[in-house]
Write a structure and sequence with these properties.
327 residues; 6-stranded mixed beta sheet; 14 helices; 12% strand
């Protein structure tokens, strides 16, 4: 968080610090020198019981804060909040925590309890700053922070389960992007025989945990590209950390089997089992290898299945839903 230079900055910073625009709240922002630290919010207290504020004080001490900013967002039935603000400030000061600013917000207006200038901070207060025009907001958005939610309920809802329609759309969008990423990475390897983009590789490895994307990646191989992509999957397997190797090991096992490298194929399956003993693709391949399936069977299966997987990934969502209903 940027340095706060004036009350407008503090009022703009609070929603970013706690994730939403608070109401009926007491907000405490820790300071270490001029650096903004921990932000704490509690429901506006119904009485002057000092216990909650002593707990907040203990958190400030743990954070090694030497100061704290207070912002009181008053309920409708609260007149001015001065008694509460003075109580909290006195508890902090006993712990040698300075309170350089206390702001009181009520009905979209604010005033500073410590400011003695009636022109600046009259009892009527000043309009709350527009977040869209705030320097603090501009800096936070530029650094990648999302805009605060309007209410705590909106924040909570943003973390709830997606409904079925939203979930279908989300999965659809993920698979399209993952398939495009997969094809792009393999094209880069075919072109250069190496890949230096670590972020692209990491995303590729993670995406392979989705079975549809794994099958899509497996189906890209053709008889013409088998030798080069065998090297690609070997290289990918050797750089992938434990916990993410099973999908890659099974694909590499099939390509090794097609090349007549039965020993390497079975060893690759062992890697998959170590990584995930319950990985169903590894169990299926183990049975087919033991049964002596011809290598050509895998090439035929890949050639037949890949167009269907592409259609599943890239077909419009509405078409998929209609097909599910009809089936």
């Amino acid at each position: 968080m940027t340095t706060l230079q004036k009350p407008h900055d503090l009022l703009s910073a609070v929603p970013f610090l706690i994730g939403y625009h608070p109401q009926n709240s007491l907000v405490v922002v820790a300071l270490r020198g001029e650096k903004i630290g921990l932000a704490m919010r509690i429901d506006y207290p119904e009485n002057l019981d000092p216990l909650p504020f002593q707990t907040i004080t203990s958190h400030l001490i743990y954070e090694k804060a030497d100061g704290a900013l207070l912002v009181l967002y008053l309920p409708e039935d609260e007149k001015d909040g001065e008694l509460l603000a003075k109580l909290v400030a006195s508890i902090f000061k006993k712990a040698e925590i300075n309170v350089p600013e206390i702001l009181i917000v009520k009905e979209e207006r604010w005033r500073s309890l410590l400011c003695q200038d009636d022109k600046c901070c009259s009892l009527e207060g000043n309009p709350l700053p527009n977040l869209d025009h705030s320097r603090v907001a501009a800096e936070q958005v530029y650094s990648g922070k999302i805009l605060p939610f309007k209410t705590r309920e909106e924040l909570e809802n943003s973390l709830n389960y997606l409904n079925e329609e939203e979930l279908n759309i989300s999965i659809k969008e993920f698979r399209i992007k993952a398939a495009e990423n997969c094809a792009h990475l393999i094209d880069k390897y075919l072109e250069n025989r190496s890949i230096s983009d670590s972020e692209l590789i990491a995303k590729f490895v993670l995406d392979l945990n989705d079975l549809t994307i794994r099958d899509y990646a497996f189906g890209i191989t053709t008889q013409e590209s088998l030798e080069v992509l065998w090297e690609f999957w070997l290289w990918t397997l050797r750089i992938t950390p434990i916990g993410f190797r099973a999908p890659i090991a099974t694909i590499f096992a099939v390509l090794s089997y097609e090349r007549g490298e039965a020993a390497i194929a079975n060893q690759s399956l062992e890697i998959a089992f170590i990584d995930n003993p319950q990985y169903s693709m590894a169990n299926l391949l183990k049975r087919t290898f033991d049964a002596g399936w011809p290598a050509s069977a895998f090439e035929s299966m890949r050639r037949e299945l890949h167009p269907k997987i592409c259609e599943t990934i890239f077909s419009p969502l509405e078409q998929e839903l209609e097909e599910e209903k009809s089936s």
